[in-house]
Amino acid sequence: MPRNLVDRRAVLKTMSAATVAGAVAARPQRVAAQQVKWSSGTEAPKLRAPADAADCHHHIYNSQYPVDPRSTLRPGDATVEDYRAFQRRIGTSRNVIVQPSTYGTDNSCTLDALVAFGPTARAVAVVDTTVSDAELKRMNGLGVRGIRFNLAQAGATTPEMIEPLSMRVSDLGWHIQINAPAAKIMEIRDILNRVPSPIVFDHLAHIPEPEGTAHPLFGVILALIDKGKTWVKLSGAYIDTKIGSPSYSDSSAVARAYVQKAPERLVWGSDWPHPSERDNKPDDAILFDLLLDWAPEERVRNRILVQNPEALYGFAKSA
User: Do residues 309 and 120 touch, judged by C-beta distance below 8 A?
Assistant: First the structure.
């Protein structure tokens, strides 16, 4: 089984201060029209990503790593090099790797990718209550900044694990990340109100359509945001839509409502390589350009793409 052969801290120590600073405070990427694996279309987006723009939700898959036998989503390889091609097309320069359900609590694939990307990357791991404090500290040193509870897929984590694990990772300054359907989030909302750590909801918090912002879950999420510890990922517009591409107008209405209510609590994510979409992969340029509709003001978009990720994931402050 491949393991983390290189300690990321050792890598950083061997780099000059100028090199690290250049990697962290990246200039805008040069975008190019090109075909990217697991993405339809070839055109570059109309939206030009600002310097240090972060994609706060993507996955890495590699068939060299063993899958969790309980997993149901098992996409083909989507490697570090494949994702770098995605960055060249979209123009983002920072990224957050999210451990997918495919590998359960074996974070080797995600952590090895984290080392390969270097200081412009962070990660969100998946653990259960058997994880040791030493392992949590090791992952923290590598750049992990949260743990994910994927309650949309049967597998490694359960609602009963949320509170005890939140208590343990809160001391590290980590957050807990929730991917769950609306009914499940409503069911666990009392737990979410008790946890000490920040909370991050995947994919617009899966607000159901066609109800959209009229659904009770939207009010629950806003109430958690008002408590000052909750974030939402503007990602996965295609997941709960009933209308679909290119406007995703139902999901877009939810995204715009979040931007109007709490722009300081939002980050953007591509969800590349779109594991829930087995056949028709979305056009990532169209998905990125949705931000022009969701957040028409450049100042607000830059907050979502740059400043908010710096606050949530501990990226270096942009120059």
Answer: no
